[in-house]
From TrEMBL, chain A:
Name this protein carries in UniProt: Protein kinase domain-containing protein
UniProt KW keywords: ATP-binding, Kinase, Nucleotide-binding, Phosphoprotein, Serine/threonine-protein kinase, Transferase
Annotated binding of ATP, by residue: 33
Endpoints of the signal sequence: none
Single annotated GO MF: cyclin binding
InterPro entries: CDK, Kinase-like_dom_sf, Prot_kinase_dom, Protein_kinase_ATP_BS, Ser/Thr_kinase_AS
SUPFAM superfamilies: Protein kinase-like (PK-like)
GO cellular component: cyclin-dependent protein kinase holoenzyme complex; cytoplasm; nucleus
Source organism (scientific name): Dioscorea zingiberensis
Domain Protein kinase, chain residue ranges per copy: 4-295
Family indicated by similarity: Belongs to the protein kinase superfamily. CMGC Ser/Thr protein kinase family. CDC2/CDKX subfamily.
Top-level division of the source organism's lineage: Eukaryota
Pfam families: Pkinase
UniProtKB/TrEMBL annotation, chain B:
Protein name, UniProt field: Cyclin-like domain-containing protein
SMART domains per UniProt: CYCLIN
Keywords, alphabetical: Cell cycle, Cell division, Cyclin
An example Gene Ontology biological process: cell division
Origin species: Dioscorea zingiberensis
Recorded GO MF terms: cyclin-dependent protein serine/threonine kinase regulator activity
Family named by the database record: Belongs to the cyclin family. Cyclin C subfamily.
Cited Gene3D superfamilies: Cyclin-like
Recorded superkingdom: Eukaryota
Domain Cyclin-like, first and last residues per copy: 46-136, 149-227
SUPFAM superfamilies for the chain: Cyclin-like
Length: 303, 260
């Protein structure tokens, strides 16, 4: 590991610390993701293996963070695996926070929101077309290059390749705020729609500079959603009341979505409403989202 | 693992036939012959298969493990990478990559139960150490596609689902060769369907024509498979595992490597 000089710790990933470091050979900045290996038990954690193999497959898209190298090292006799990623200076959470409570608070410009959302859809479409669900999309997992205005998907530790049709996956995955209602309600089959719900929540958050559904428990999370979008009915979402964790809820009427994102234009509100469809089958796909009129004013040739 | 073969690392990793089944210089120095190299790979494929049946994993985990095993030896010598350790470690790694992890201690336990020969027996730490070396040898490309799903879809499409059992067995046997490193999985599936249909007197010319695939490739794969059966026929019948390699020949070959 003499090849890299650690500069500072920048965060905790799903299964280890992340450092900012410099490649001593060429001065290039990299992110080192350290994975502890409990070698006396079960070797390399399957989550790390999964991330490595998925990244090997996906990282030729510029909208997915690039895995540059994998380094195997010994630390005090204990084996450690370092995933070496390209370095980006910030993530979308910090970027939004900066616009909310930085020295010059103010909204993200509509152009930035539009461009970031497009890149996010492009990255998600790339994952989905390779048969990979991310399952944990949230602003912290979206890396941002402020200078170049580039957004990339990171942290695929929970991502998993899917084969259609899907069987049940473990439930404890998505951070509550971005978790799709079908996951919250305990569905046994879920698919690309779970990521698109998260994309919708992230879209709204860029506009509002705060989370649209900030629940602190699974029930609270559902109630946040229901209060804004109305309590779902069998008519709009066939089968919802037979999902495992469905209970009788207060019957809220849907509110006007535009009021939750007052600075967003009509096309934007329309796209958001298509991402926040209750019935996962009706939710817009990443690929279709990229063709939505909301992006008509965007110069797509740059992507 | 993933749904799209064409976009996968497996697709990009397909090898030229000339780069597969090539004896490494170090192994050649030890006096290993091309034939023995092939035999060891067949034998170890069977070893993985038997071990997998003990620990009860899905078919695709076995197929992935064998693919790793064969890919390793396009790059590494058997002298440095003892096949008797690489084989179970490939199964271990494949079980993780395919999300049905088998504990290392279970593998160690069943190997001891299966093999009386000391040279096949390893400890957990040996497997874990080899796991890391294999990852590097495989360049961390772990996603592998197999012919099974394509086989079922194609047989359905051809209206020949009655051939499923037979063709499935043929696909299993293709892992005793290096075909999975060279050809797209659906082409291997087509070759197996082709053989099955010829042997069972099914008329498939029109169906194959409609597929618009390169029939020369399908036929070449088929010939390789049939040659393989011819050569290693021993007392096997088609679609059944090859059992015809005498233990002494394998041991003589492995002894040349003199690992452990």
């Amino acid at each position: 590991m003499e090849k890299y000089e650690k500069l500072e710790k920048v965060g905790e990933g799903t299964y280890g610390k992340v450092y900012k470091a410099k490649d001593t050979a060429n001065g290039q900045l990299v992110a080192l993701k350290k994975t502890r290996l409990e070698m006396d038990e079960e070797g390399i954690p399957p989550t790390a293996l999964r991330e490595i193999s998925l990244l090997q497959m996906l990282s030729h898209s510029i909208y997915v963070v690039r895995l540059l190298n994998v380094e195997h090292a010994d630390k005090n006799g204990k084996p450690v695996l370092y995933l070496v990623f390209e370095y980006l200076d910030t993530d979308l959470k910090k970027f939004i926070d900066y616009h909310r409570k930085g020295p010059n608070p103010g909204p993200l410009s509509p152009q930035v929101i539009q461009s970031f959302l497009y890149q996010l859809c492009k990255g998600v479409a790339h994952c989905h077309s390779h048969g990979v669900l991310h399952r944990d999309l949230k602003p912290q997992n979206l890396l941002v290059d402020k200078e170049k205005g580039i957004l990339k998907i990171a942290d695929l530790g929970l991502g998993r390749a899917f084969t259609i049709p899907l069987k049940s996956y473990t439930h404890e995955i998505v951070t509550l705020w971005y978790r799709a209602p079908e996951v919250l309600l305990g569905t046994s089959h879920y698919s690309t729609g779970v990521d698109m719900w998260s994309v919708g929540c992230i879209f709204a958050e860029m506009v509002r500079r705060q989370a649209i559904f900030p629940g602190d428990s699974e029930l609270q999370q559902l109630l946040h959603i229901f209060r804004l979008l109305g309590t779902p009915t069998e008519e709009q979402w066939p089968g919802v009341s037979s999902l495992r964790d469905w209970h009788e809820y207060p019957k809220w009427k849907p509110q006007n979505l535009a009021r939750a994102v007052p600075s967003l234009d009509l096309d934007g509100v329309d796209l958001l409403s298509k991402m926040l469809q209750y019935n996962p089958a009706n939710r817009i796909s990443a690929k279709a989202a990229m063709d939505h009129p909301y992006f008509d004013s965007l110069d797509k040739s740059q992507f | 693992m993933a749904a799209n073969f064409w976009a996968s690392s497996h697709c990009k990793q397909l090898l030229d036939p000339d780069d597969v089944d090539v004896l490494q210089p170090l192994d050649r120095e030890r006096g290993l012959t091309q034939e023995e190299f092939k035999l060891i790979k067949i034998h170890m494929t069977n070893h993985i298969w038997k071990l997998a049946q003990q620990v009860k994993v899905r078919q695709r985990v076995i197929a992935t493990a064998v693919t790793y095993f064969r890919r390793v030896y396009t790059r590494k010598s058997m002298t440095e990478y003892d096949p008797r350790l690489v084989a179970p470690t490939c199964l271990y790694l494949a079980s993780k990559a395919e999300e049905s992890t088998v504990q290392a201690r279970l593998l160690v336990f069943y190997i001891k139960k299966m093999c009386s020969d000391e040279k096949y027996r390893f400890e957990i730490k040996d497997i874990l150490e080899m796991e890391m070396k294999l990852l590097e040898a495989l360049d961390y490309y772990l996603i592998v596609f197999h012919p099974y799903r394509a086989l079922l879809q194609l047989l359905q499409d051809a209206g020949m689902t009655d051939l499923t059992h037979f063709a499935w067995g043929l696909v299993n046997d293709t892992y005793k060769m290096d075909l999975i490193l060279i050809y797209p999985p659906y082409m291997i599936a087509l070759a197996c369907i082709y053989i099955a249909s010829v042997l069972k007197d099914k008329e498939t010319t029109a169906w194959f024509e409609e597929l618009r695939v390169d029939m020369n490739v399908v036929k070449n794969i088929s010939i390789e498979i049939l040659d393989f059966y011819d050569y290693y026929k021993g007392d096997t019948c088609k679609g059944e595992p090859v059992k015809g390699i005498p233990e002494e020949r394998i041991n003589a070959a492995l002894n040349k490597l003199a690992t452990k």
